[in-house]
C-alpha cells in the first residue's frame, strides 16, 4: 500500500480501492488522478492480502468501489463479495472471455474491461448516477433494539436521538467568528489536495458563499454534500464543529422557506438486511433520522432510481413513503428545493433529527420493500422535557466552547472535549471570568479517563483562578464536589468525604434545602458512605437526593438514573438482590433514552446487573452483561483504564467458573 494513502481517513462515504500488481506503472499513475476526479478517496494495493485486510477494516456503512486486475480478482472477489462495504466491483484484464465467465456469478461485478478508458468511463457513469439519486447514501436512524449490542446504526428513540439533538443545537447556536469559514476551507483543501475538480469548487465557495445560498450549495454535487452527510452519520465531532456555520445556515433557510401544505414525499433507499429486520420490528414506533433527509415529490422518480440497483444478497431495496403535515405542532421544517436545486427534480429536504412514526412495512413488486411513515411533531413528553432541561443545564444559549466541551464530556467524547477545552484555554487570559471553568472541565475529563492526580491538579488551578478573581462563593462548591469524586476514585475516601462536606456547607449557604445542587452533594455523600461500608448512612443520603431530584428533574433525566443505580448498590450490600436489580433496571431504562449507547455510565450499570446475576449464580447472564460492559468500555476508555482492566478480569474469572 502506498504510504501517502495509508495516513489519512476517508471523509466521504465512497472510496475507490484499486488492486493491481503493476499499480505504480506510468500509465496507472495517470489513471489514479482520473479516478480521484470523481471518487476522492483512492487507495492502491499491490498485495492482495493487505488489500483484503484493509477492505475488512472499512466501516460496513461505507461504500467501496473495487477495481482489480483479472488475475488477482479471480482469487479475491469470492472472499470479499458478500461484505456489506463492497458496493461494486470492476475488473480490468487482457482475457475478456475467461474473466467474464467466472465474474458472471458475482452480481456486484458491474463490468469486465480490457481498455482503461472503457473502465474509467463506466465507473464514472455509474458513480454519477448514484450521486444524482442518493438511494445508496447510508442513513443514520435511531431505533433502539435491545438485542443488537449497541452496534446498529439503525437503532425506539434511544439516547442517540437526544444526544444528537443536543449536539446539533449546541453547534448551530455557537458564535460565528471571522475565521470559521477560513478554517473550514483550509481543512477541505487538505482533504482534496491534488483533486483539481473539487479544488475549483472550494475556491468558488470561498469567493461566493453567502448564508442565503446554503440550500443551493447543499443541493449541488460538490464536496459539501459528501462531507456533511458522512460527518453527520458517524458524528465526526471535529468536522461537525467546522461545519457548524453551514449547518446553521441550512437550518435557517429550511425554516424561512418551509413548506406550508400537507404533502407526501418518497425516498428510495438501499439498506442492509440487518437494518431492514430492525425496521420490521419497529412498526408502530418512532424513529429519527440523524442527518438531513433528501426526498422526492415524484414516486416514480424514486422508484426509477431504486430500480437501477439490481437485487442482491447484501442490500435490500426500500421505498420510504412519507406523509408530512407542517400544520402539526412541533413538526420540524422541510422545504421544496426546486428554486435552489441544480437539478430539475422535485426534491424536498427535511431537517436533521426529523421524527417519524413507522406505520406499515410490506414487500411489494420487484422485491422492493415499502415503508409507510408519518412526520411527527411533539414526541414523548418526558423526552421533550428532558431535552429542554439538559439544554438549560448545558447553557447552550451561551454559544461558546465552554458549553460545547461540557456537552462532549457527557457524550463520552473525552478526547474531543479535552481538545476543545485546550483550545479555549489558549484563548483566555488569566483574568478571564471563565478560566476557572476551563480548568474544571479539564479536571472532569482527566477523572473520566482515569488520571486522578492530573484531575486534582486542574481542580487546584481552578481554585487558584477563583481566588485570583476574588470569587469565593458557591462556585467553589462545584469544585469541591469534583475534587471529592477524583479523591474517591483514587481511594482517598476520608479526603473525599471532607470535600463533599465542604461542598454541602457552601451550597447550604447559597441555595434552598431542596435545590438540585444539594441533591448532588447528598448523592456523593451516599456513595462515599457506601465505600466506608456505612450502608444505613449511605441509604439516608441517597433517598434524600432522590426526593429532591424527583421534585426538579424530568423522569428520564440521567441524574435520576445515577441515584437509582447508587441505591441499587446499597440494596445489594443489604443482600436485597431483587430490589437492587429493580433499581438497576430502572436506571438502565432512563440511561438508554438519555445517553449514547456506548456511555461509561451504561457500562457501569451493566457491570452492576452482572454482579447481581453472578451473586444469584446465574453465570451466563452475568457474563453476558460483563461482556456488554466491556464492549462499551473498549469504545470509550484507554486500554490502561482501571475500569476496563477490571471488566476484562471479571470476564476471565467467570469463564473459568462456567
Automatic annotation (TrEMBL):
InterPro entries: TPR-like_helical_dom_sf, TPR_rpt. SUPFAM superfamilies: ADP-ribosylation, TPR-like. Gene3D superfamilies: Tetratricopeptide repeat domain (1.25.40.10), Toxin ADP-ribosyltransferase, Chain A, domain 1 (3.90.176.10). Keywords: Repeat, TPR repeat. The keyword Repeat applies. It comes from the Eukaryota. TPR repeats lie at residues 477-510, 519-552, 561-594. Pfam families: TPR_10, TPR_12. PANTHER family: NEPHROCYSTIN-3, TETRATRICOPEPTIDE REPEAT PROTEIN (AFU_ORTHOLOGUE AFUA_6G03870). This is Uncharacterized protein. It comes from Adineta steineri.
Amino acid at each position: 500500500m502506498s504510504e501517502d494513502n495509508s495516513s489519512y481517513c476517508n471523509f466521504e462515504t465512497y472510496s475507490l480501492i484499486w488492486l493491481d500488481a503493476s499499480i505504480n506503472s506510468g500509465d496507472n499513475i495517470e489513471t489514479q488522478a482520473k479516478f480521484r476526479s470523481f471518487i476522492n478517496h483512492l487507495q492502491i494495493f499491490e498485495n492482495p492480502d493487505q488489500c483484503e485486510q484493509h477492505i475488512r477494516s472499512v466501516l460496513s456503512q461505507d461504500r467501496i468501489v473495487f477495481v482489480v486486475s483479472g488475475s488477482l480478482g479471480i482469487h479475491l472477489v469470492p472472499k470479499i463479495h458478500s461484505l456489506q462495504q463492497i458496493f461494486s466491483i470492476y475488473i480490468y484484464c487482457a482475457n475478456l472471455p475467461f474473466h467474464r465467465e467466472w465474474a458472471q456469478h458475482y452480481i456486484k461485478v458491474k463490468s469486465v474491461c480490457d481498455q482503461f478508458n472503457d473502465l474509467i468511463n463506466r465507473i464514472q457513469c455509474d458513480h454519477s448516477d448514484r450521486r444524482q439519486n442518493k438511494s445508496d447514501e447510508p442513513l443514520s436512524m435511531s431505533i433502539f433494539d435491545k438485542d443488537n449490542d449497541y452496534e446498529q446504526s439503525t437503532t425506539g428513540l434511544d439516547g442517540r436521538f437526544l444526544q444528537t439533538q443536543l449536539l446539533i443545537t449546541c453547534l448551530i447556536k455557537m458564535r460565528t467568528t471571522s475565521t470559521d469559514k477560513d478554517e473550514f476551507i483550509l481543512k477541505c483543501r487538505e482533504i482534496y489536495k491534488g483533486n483539481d475538480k473539487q479544488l475549483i469548487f472550494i475556491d468558488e465557495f470561498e469567493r461566493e458563499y453567502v448564508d442565503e445560498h446554503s440550500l443551493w450549495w447543499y443541493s449541488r454535487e460538490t464536496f459539501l454534500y459528501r462531507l456533511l452527510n458522512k460527518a453527520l452519520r458517524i458524528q465526526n465531532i471535529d468536522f461537525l464543529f467546522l461545519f457548524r456555520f453551514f449547518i446553521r445556515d441550512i437550518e435557517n433557510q429550511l425554516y424561512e422557506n418551509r413548506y406550508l401544505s400537507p404533502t407526501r414525499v418518497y425516498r428510495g433507499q438501499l439498506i442492509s438486511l440487518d437494518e431492514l429486520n430492525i425496521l420490521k420490528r419497529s412498526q408502530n414506533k418512532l424513529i429519527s433520522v440523524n442527518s438531513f433527509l433528501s426526498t422526492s415529490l415524484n414516486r416514480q422518480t424514486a422508484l426509477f432510481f431504486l430500480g437501477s440497483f439490481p437485487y442482491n444478497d447484501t442490500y435490500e431495496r426500500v421505498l420510504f413513503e412519507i406523509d408530512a403535515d407542517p400544520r402539526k405542532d412541533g413538526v420540524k421544517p422541510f422545504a421544496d428545493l426546486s428554486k435552489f436545486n441544480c437539478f430539475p427534480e422535485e426534491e424536498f429536504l427535511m431537517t436533521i433529527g426529523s421524527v417519524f412514526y413507522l406505520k406499515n412495512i410490506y414487500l411489494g413488486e420487484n422485491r422492493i420493500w415499502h415503508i409507510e411513515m408519518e412526520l411527527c411533531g411533539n414526541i414523548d413528553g418526558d423526552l421533550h422535557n428532558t431535552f429542554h432541561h439538559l439544554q438549560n443545564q448545558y447553557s447552550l444559549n451561551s454559544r461558546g466552547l465552554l458549553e460545547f466541551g461540557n456537552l462532549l464530556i457527557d457524550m463520552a467524547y473525552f478526547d474531543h472535549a479535552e481538545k476543545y477545552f485546550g483550545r479555549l484555554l489558549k484563548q483566555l487570559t488569566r483574568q478571564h471570568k471563565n478560566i476557572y471553568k476551563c480548568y474544571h472541565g479539564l479536571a472532569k475529563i482527566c477523572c473520566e479517563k482515569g488520571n486522578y492526580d492530573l484531575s486534582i491538579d486542574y481542580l487546584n488551578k481552578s481554585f487558584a483562578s477563583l481566588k485570583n478573581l476574588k470569587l469565593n462563593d458557591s462556585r467553589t462548591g462545584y469544585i469541591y464536589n469534583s475534587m471529592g469524586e477524583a479523591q474517591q476514585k483514587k481511594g482517598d475516601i476520608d479526603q473525599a468525604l471532607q470535600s463533599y462536606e465542604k461542598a454541602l456547607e457552601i451550597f447550604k449557604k447559597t441555595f434552598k434545602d431542596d435545590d438540585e445542587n444539594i441533591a448532588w452533594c447528598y448523592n456523593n455523600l451516599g456513595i462515599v458512605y457506601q465505600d466506608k461500608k456505612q450502608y444505613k448512612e449511605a441509604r439516608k443520603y441517597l433517598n434524600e437526593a432522590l426526593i429532591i431530584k424527583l421534585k426538579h428533574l424530568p423522569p428520564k433525566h440521567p441524574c435520576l438514573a445515577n441515584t437509582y443505580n447508587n441505591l441499587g448498590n446499597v440494596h445489594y450490600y443489604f443482600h436485597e438482590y431483587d430490589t437492587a436489580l429493580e433499581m438497576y433496571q430502572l436506571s438502565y431504562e432512563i440511561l438508554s433514552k438519555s445517553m449514547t449507547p456506548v456511555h461509561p455510565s451504561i457500562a457501569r450499570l451493566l457491570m452492576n446487573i452482572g454482579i447481581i446475576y453472578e451473586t444469584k449464580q446465574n453465570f451466563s447472564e452475568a457474563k453476558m452483561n460483563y461482556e456488554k460492559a466491556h464492549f462499551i468500555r473498549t469504545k470509550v476508555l484507554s486500554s490502561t483504564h482501571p475500569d476496563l482492566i477490571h471488566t476484562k478480569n471479571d470476564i476471565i474469572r467467570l469463564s473459568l467458573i462456567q
